[in-house]
């Protein structure tokens, strides 16, 4: 847990790596990155981080050598952060109607006010199509869609 993102540094700023400090660190990080649901309706992370073959990673690295990835030893595949893909594709902070990609966290789709479920899904589908086109990677939704 401490080796994920900038958690270790944030915990060290609070003191020793106790359960209380780790919890506070995670709460603080989420408050910085995620929208206040009282201001913007959202379902949290909308897309799963895709697991891809190493050959797909190599193709992405040809254009973006800095692409972050995590090796999944049990499957021989790698996981690429969906938020990174969405941001690199230019969607972070963008809107379609009243639905938008949050300006601080590309994984979060928000309702800017009076967005319909169809508007949210239209935005999600546009992002999915763009990621497939630009990176040859299929995003999967983390949310459950109820129709």
From TrEMBL:
Question: What pathway is this protein a component of?
Answer: Cell wall biogenesis; peptidoglycan biosynthesis
List the subcellular locations: Cytoplasm
Q: Locate the active site.
A: 45, 142
Q: Offer one example of a GO biological process linked to this entry.
A: cell wall organization
Instruction: Classify the source by domain of life.
Output: Bacteria
Q: What is its EC number?
A: 1.3.1.98
Listed SUPFAM superfamilies: Uridine diphospho-N-Acetylenolpyruvylglucosamine reductase, MurB, C-terminal domain
Keywords on this record? Cell cycle, Cell division, Cell shape, Cell wall biogenesis/degradation, Cytoplasm, FAD, Flavoprotein, NADP, Oxidoreductase, Peptidoglycan synthesis
Q: Please give the catalytic activity noted in the UniProt record.
A: UDP-N-acetyl-alpha-D-muramate + NADP(+) = UDP-N-acetyl-3-O-(1-carboxyvinyl)-alpha-D-glucosamine + NADPH + H(+)
Cofactor(s) annotated in UniProt: FAD
Where is the UDP-N-acetylenolpyruvoylglucosamine reductase C-terminal domain positioned along the sequence? Answer: 22-146
MF GO annotations: flavin adenine dinucleotide binding; UDP-N-acetylmuramate dehydrogenase activity
Q: GO CC annotation: what is one?
A: cytosol
Q: Which HAMAP family match?
A: MurB
Function field: Cell wall formation.
**Family as reported in the entry's similarity comment:** Belongs to the MurB family.
Q: What is this protein called?
A: UDP-N-acetylenolpyruvoylglucosamine reductase
- The organism named in the record is Geofilum rubicundum JCM 15548
Q: Which gene encodes it?
A: murB
